[in-house]
């Protein structure tokens, strides 16, 4: 076995030849220049990727057929609404349901069995959301008539009047004479540009007197320069069309509810005109 150096042995210091020689100024400048150029290229590449990413996502969505906007339209039962039905709900379980104070769920089930028409006027809330980083120009929001039929005369339901004032911004349309307001080429008051996560809400107030209508919401938009104008349509969230009707002189049976809390409908003893 070979013995190691004594415990108090200290290695001799490096000679000047063994120490790292300092770099000349020209070489230090060249190393700095290469580092700076490399960092600059990395920054440009990162910026290019970041800038191209939204365009790439838009392109993938376009190629996949995903629409550039998302439209939701719905209508609720409001105080002072009047509903008209083709069917005469004068007996059986539906009559018992109305006169016993139906819940919201029970009323919705009744409406699925017997689709109602709002009488004279209805309000539909339309929310349009952007789905692209590039602007989508919303040109118009308007009713689209699916059918014009005879006014229902079987049953009408009268809801109690509102207690307070309701404020809203509206687009008005008369289905008996469907055309934009005088002096405008569209129903929407002004054109709106939407980008990703931006939203536009429009309240469509639609009226009818001469007939009953089934309809949905039509949104006219422009996505991309030089492209043809595009349309998308929205019905209720349950897939049903919206329905509005003009009144008739007399219904087979009519109900009203004076109590907005328990909502127990009672048969109207007077002439069932729902006026």
Indicate the overall shape: elongated
How much of the sequence lies in strands comes to 25-35%
Average the pLDDT over all residues and give the rounded result: 79
| Sheet/helix structural class | alpha+beta
Number of strands: 14
Structure, briefly:
This protein has 275 residues and is an alpha+beta fold. 21% of the residues lie in helices and 31% in strands.
Plain-language structure description:
The protein is an alpha+beta fold. It folds into two domains: 23-66; 67-267. The chain is 21% helix and 31% strand. The chain has helices spanning 25-63, 92-99, 104-113, and strands at residues 69-74, 82-85, 117-119, 121-130, 136-149, 155-158, 170-174, 192-194, 199-207, 212-222, 230-234, 242-245, 253-256, 266-267. The strands form two sheets. Strands 2, 3, 5, 6, 8, 10, 11, 12, 13 and 14 form a ten-stranded mixed beta sheet that branches. Strands 1-4-9-7 form a four-stranded mixed beta sheet, with no helix packed on it. Strand 10 (212-222) and strand 11 (230-234) form a beta hairpin. The chain is elongated. The protein starts with 24 loop residues before the first helix and ends in an 8-residue tail after the last strand. Residues 1-13 and 43-50 have low confidence and may be disordered. Keywords: Membrane, Transmembrane, Transmembrane helix. The chain crosses the membrane at residues 29-53. Residues 1-24 are annotated as: Disordered.
């Amino acid at each position: 076995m070979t013995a190691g150096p004594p415990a108090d042995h200290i290695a001799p210091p490096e000679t000047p030849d063994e120490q790292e020689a300092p770099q000349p100024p020209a070489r230090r400048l060249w190393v700095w220049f290469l580092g700076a150029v490399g960092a600059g290229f990395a920054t440009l590449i990162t910026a290019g990727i970041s800038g191209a990413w939204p365009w790439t996502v838009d392109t993938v969505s376009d190629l996949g057929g995903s629409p550039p906007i998302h439209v939701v339209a719905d209508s609720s039962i409001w105080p002072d609404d009047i509903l008209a039905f083709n069917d005469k709900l004068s007996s059986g379980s539906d009559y018992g349901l109305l006169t016993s104070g139906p819940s919201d769920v029970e009323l919705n089930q009744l409406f699925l069995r017997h689709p109602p028409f709002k009488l004279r006027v209805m309000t539909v809330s339309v929310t349009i959301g952007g789905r692209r980083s590039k602007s989508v120009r919303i040109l118009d929001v308007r009713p689209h008539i699916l059918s014009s039929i005879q006014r229902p005369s079987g049953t009408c339901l009268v809801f109690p009047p509102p207690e307070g004032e309701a404020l809203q911004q509206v687009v008005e349309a008369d289905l008996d004479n469907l055309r934009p307001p005088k002096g405008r080429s569209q129903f929407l008051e002004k054109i709106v540009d939407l980008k990703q996560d931006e939203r536009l809400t429009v309240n469509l107030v639609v009226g009818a007197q001469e007939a009953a209508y089934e309809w949905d919401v039509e949104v006219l938009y422009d996505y991309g320069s030089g492209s043809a104008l595009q349309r998308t349509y929205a019905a209720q969230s349950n897939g049903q069309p919206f329905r509005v009707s003009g009144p008739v002189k007399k219904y087979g049976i009519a109900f009203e509810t004076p109590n907005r809390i328990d909502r127990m409908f009672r048969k109207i003893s007077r002439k069932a005109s729902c006026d």
